[in-house]
């Protein structure tokens, strides 16, 4: 079966098993390796992408669900790294190992789209499904607030 998806703004026709996880279509078929495999059970958030602007876990999303829809990966958020979240992540030194960061940023991007100036509780609630083995949660929250344009006193 051929699945047609728009990935990072580019139409793609994929001749894959429709039950293949979207993660493997992105990584193995299309070579977009920014989206990471973490747990394979939608528990850690490392594989987070946007499907028509909504956060999904690519490890458990069959590629058939993306048929005719738009997928945005970390590579498509801002190819040159200029997205406010990406800049804030670098400026505040958020990552340690970096493995979970693409999923963290993709979840944070959806949060800021829905709530441009989120409270601490809104950030914590939105980001709760994204695990960071290094424990950089306070830096993640600060980077989200910086990207939202919140003054340093509110971070």
Automatic annotation (TrEMBL):
The keyword Manganese does not apply. Keywords: 2Fe-2S, Iron, Iron-sulfur, Metal-binding, Oxidoreductase. Gene3D superfamilies: 3.10.20.30, [2Fe-2S]-binding domain (1.10.150.120). Residues 1-77 form the 2Fe-2S ferredoxin-type domain. GO terms for molecular function: 2 iron, 2 sulfur cluster binding; metal ion binding; oxidoreductase activity. It comes from the Bacteria. InterPro entries: 2Fe-2S-bd, 2Fe-2S-bd_dom_sf, 2Fe-2S_ferredoxin-like_sf, 2Fe-2S_ferredoxin-type, 2Fe2S_fd_BS, Beta-grasp_dom_sf, Diverse_Oxidoreductases. SUPFAM superfamilies: 2Fe-2S ferredoxin-like, CO dehydrogenase ISP C-domain like. This is 2Fe-2S iron-sulfur cluster binding domain-containing protein. The lineage of its organism: Bacteria, Pseudomonadati, Myxococcota, Polyangia, Polyangiales.
């Amino acid at each position: 079966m051929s699945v047609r998806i728009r990935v990072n703004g580019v139409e793609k026709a994929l001749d894959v098993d429709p039950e293949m996880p979207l993660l493997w279509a992105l990584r193995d078929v299309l070579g977009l390796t920014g989206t990471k495999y973490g747990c394979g059970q939608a528990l850690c958030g490392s594989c987070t992408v946007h499907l028509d602007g909504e956060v999904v876990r690519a490890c458990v999303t069959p590629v058939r669900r993306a048929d005719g829809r738009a997928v945005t990966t970390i590579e498509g958020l801002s190819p040159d790294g200029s997205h406010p979240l990406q800049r804030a992540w670098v400026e505040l030194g958020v990552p340690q190992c970096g493995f979970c960061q693409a999923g963290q940023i993709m979840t944070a991007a959806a949060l800021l789209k829905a709530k441009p100036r989120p409270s601490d509780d809104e950030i914590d609630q939105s980001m709760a499904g994204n695990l960071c083995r290094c424990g950089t949660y306070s830096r993640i929250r600060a980077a989200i607030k910086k990207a939202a344009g919140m003054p340093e006193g509110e971070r």
